[in-house]
């Protein structure tokens, strides 16, 4: 009896906490459990004027217990269904249905008790025990599912707020950075002091580095939030855009970029994500090149197969040591200290490839060169 009443009381307390979004105090819970224990003892000790008091005790101990439990679970089901938080989730619906089925079973038990007292004897159906167990399992399963849905929605909300904050802050930072770059440019034109000019150049380089970091963060934010748009991708036009974008990169004019255009180099994928992948790989190849050799080059190869395309970006640059090859796709990791890169380029590449359900492999030898092989499914 104590277990049944405690179960009903705690279910009701949990439902009320759901409405109030506030927990009951420990003191109130102790008082509630103590009252349930006292009431249960009183009901056990109750007697009646009839010869053995069996009928009275049967109604009070059994019938009343089932009646209270059924009412409480109906109330809990109503609270769960009408609760406006995450309405419509499968966990919420499952738990509410579990409450209703458990309440119906206890209502049936209540009916049997009163039927036995006032009409005729009728035994409890044994298979109802199994139905009762299934109802309890449904409540537990619904509760777990609802908690997981709650966590998922809270995480989604936090990610959206973080993306919004990141996007807003990045844009707000880029405006003063552009102003500082303009001022440093004017200062370099106006300054004739040979001691001051190097400091202005160093300020300009650091500001450009900060602008590059913010630009990469914005690119990562846009890439992660953007929905995939599957369309025909003309790889030839894409390469022409990338060559136009990177031709003013530092050192790009000293490197030969080889790509053999072909009208058949067309496939279906998300053009924006493919451009992010290719642009970062080619830009990285420029940053980490060896410009003092005879023929610095970057080769881009495209192979189209039935279900996938393979893109290779090959260079004869600095290369990556074997110890660093597993780490180059980590956020803010730079394999070489000779570059002023942000360490986000290959991380962005990896995220974009994962979004397209592709894969990337790297083969490299120090002072020989690096080959990045990107495999993307044809959508």
- Tally of distinct domains: 3
What is the average per-residue confidence, as pLDDT, rounded to a whole number? 82
The 3D shape can be described as: elongated
* Beginning-to-end CA distance, first to last residue: 62 Å
Q: Count of DSSP helices? A: 9
- Rg to the nearest angstrom? 35 Å
Main sheet attributes: strand count, strand direction, barrel closure: 5 strands, mixed
Describe, in plain words, how this protein is organized in 3D.
The structure is a single chain. The chain is an alpha+beta fold and 379 residues long. The protein has 3 domains: 2-159, no CATH class; 162-223; 228-377, Heat Shock Protein 90, CATH 3.30.565.10. The protein is 61% helix and 12% strand. The chain contains 9 helices and 7 strands; from the N terminus they run ααααααβαββαββαββ. The chain has helices at residues 2-20, 26-45, 54-82, 90-118, 127-190, 197-225, 235-246, 271-287, 345-355, and strands spanning 230-234, 256-258, 266-270, 297-304, 308-315, 359-365, 369-377. The strands form 2 sheets. It has a 5-stranded mixed beta sheet, with helices on one face. A two-stranded antiparallel ribbon has the order 1-3. A hairpin with a 3-residue loop joins strand 4 (297-304) and strand 5 (308-315). The protein is elongated, with a radius of gyration of 35 Å.
Short structural summary:
The protein is α+β, with helices and mostly antiparallel strands. The protein is built from nine helices and seven strands; from the N terminus they run ααααααβαββαββαββ.
